[in-house]
């Protein structure tokens, strides 16, 4: 029997991006599409959220995908199969509204693909025709391409540098499809904030229902700390309990992007200190 929060599997998907399966049977039995966990790598670590990619109630496992961009994700990436994570809390957030819409577009950029995968799977199982648009800065950073190709009715690839697929952004691909006369009943986007904002502006003139999954600064996951507050339709909402999914046309992306830059300098300092410590081993 695995230990609580033991790492069962670990693999590198792309430079600096890893997929990890964790033994968390209580979470695995309750998880739904769109939800997330908050974890703490060790007793000295910070709490941070990660999307649930897959879960298996029978095996008691959950799967996450993460990019090593800060101290906490670097520490998580250093753990090996058999190691245990200190704390894993979840499932959190409201589940996605999965139903039959008709023809839908699911758009993911970077590690946002982690949530794109369960969305595509669930929307397809609900009877939708699913068009997936997968993007990354470069071809080597594209995630889950084969899995998405198998699930989707159509899959479009875009890379910022043109190393694979369309040269440009996922929002450009969506705009091109709409300009050609395609009409979607529902659009879901997840990834970097500029990408989600761009998707919202592409669909706004068409009045297409567009939903984004937000990942602001988050600490307790219960709505008490207020760290994950976002402005939606002029009102304050908390991503951990009111979201993480919101109407893309009502999100104040400018405010949210400014808030995410609040601790950039401090984060860089502690990251440099960790990297120096790793080099000195």
Description:
A 7-stranded mixed β-sheet has the order 11-10-9-8-12-13-16, with helices on both faces. The chain has helices at 25-30, 71-78, 113-125, 145-151, 170-179, 193-203, 239-242, 253-260, 264-279; strands at residues 7-14, 17-23, 36-40, 48-51, 54-56, 61-67, 87-92, 103-109, 129-136, 154-159, 166-167, 186-190, 210-213, 229-232, 235-238, 245-247. It is of the alpha/beta class and 281 residues long. It folds into 2 domains: 7-92, Elongation Factor Tu (Ef-tu), domain 3, CATH 2.40.30.10; 103-260, Nucleotide-binding domain of ferredoxin-NADP reductase (FNR) module (Rossmann fold). Helix 5 (170-179) packs parallel to helix 6 (193-203). The protein is built from 9 helices and 16 strands.
């Amino acid at each position: 029997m695995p230990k609580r929060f033991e790492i069962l599997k670990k693999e590198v998907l792309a430079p600096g991006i890893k997929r990890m399966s964790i033994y968390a049977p209580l979470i695995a039995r309750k998880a739904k599409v769109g939800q997330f966990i908050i974890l703490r790598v060790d007793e000295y670590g910070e709490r941070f959220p990660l999307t649930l990619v897959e879960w298996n109630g029978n095996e008691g496992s959950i799967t996450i995908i993460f990019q090593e961009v800060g101290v906490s994700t670097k520490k998580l990436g250093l753990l090996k199969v058999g190691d245990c994570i200190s704390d894993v809390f979840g499932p959190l957030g409201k589940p996605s509204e999965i139903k039959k819409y008709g023809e839908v577009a699911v758009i993911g950029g970077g590690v946002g693909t982690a949530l794109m995968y369960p969305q595509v799977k669930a929307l397809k199982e609900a009877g939708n025709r699913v068009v997936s648009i997968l993007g990354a800065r470069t071809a080597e950073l594209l995630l889950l391409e084969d899995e998405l190709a198998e699930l989707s009715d159509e899959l479009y690839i875009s890379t910022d540098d043109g190393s694979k697929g369309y040269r440009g952004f996922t929002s450009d691909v969506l705009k091109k499809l709409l300009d050609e006369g395609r009409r979607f009943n529902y659009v879901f986007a997840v990834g970097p904030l500029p990408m989600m904002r761009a998707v919202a502006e592409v669909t706004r003139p068409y009045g297409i229902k567009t939903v984004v999954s937000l990942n602001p600064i988050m600490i307790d996951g219960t709505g008490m700390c207020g760290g994950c507050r976002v402005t939606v339709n002029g009102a304050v909402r908390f991503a951990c309990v009111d979201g993480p999914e919101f109407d893309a046309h009502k999100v104040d992306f400018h405010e949210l992007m400014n808030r995410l830059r609040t601790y950039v300098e401090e984060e860089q300092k502690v990251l440099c200190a960790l990297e120096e410590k790793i080099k000195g081993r």
